[in-house]
Specification:
elongated, 4 helices, 131 residues, Ribosomal Protein S5, domain 2, single chain, alpha+beta, 5 strands, five-stranded mixed sheet
């Protein structure tokens, strides 16, 4: 890993993202595609992914290359955000307070609960029949 490349892993639900920050102009590539092409027409998800760079004012300093597997688009966006935050922390330790206060360094541990026996889903019961 060169001095101007920073790698980090981020996770959310069942998604895992590996991100490489490279000196550049702020472009983001996910699984080899441009961000807009990968997520479609969803500005909210794009803002979610770009938030750590906006907070640290590094939008125009780094290009982001992410490889993501598992989960859905929103879960993958959360994993990418987590990975970008961790990579920015590797690039500059002074970002820690800003990112920590916004909750960017915390892994969102909410995962779907497993189905239990005797239940329809994790907690939902079958319909009660009086007769």
């Amino acid at each position: 890993m060169a001095n101007n490349e920073f790698m980090a892993t981020g996770r959310r639900k069942t998604s895992i993202a590996v991100v490489k920050l490279v000196k550049g102009s702020g472009r983001i590539f996910v699984n080899g595609k441009k961000l807009a092409d990968y997520i479609g027409n969803s500005p909210a998800i794009e803002l979610l992914i770009r938030r750590p760079m906006a907070l640290t004012e590094t939008q125009d300093r780094y290009d982001v290359r992410a490889k993501v597997i598992g989960g859905g688009i929103v879960s993958q966006a959360g994993a990418i955000r987590h990975a970008i935050s961790r990579a920015l922390l590797k690039s500059n330790e002074e970002f820690k307070n800003v990112l920590r206060l916004e909750g960017m360094l915390t892994r969102d541990a909410r995962v779907k609960e497993r189905k239990k026996y005797g239940r329809k889903r994790a907690r939902k019961r079958f319909q009660f029949s009086k007769r």
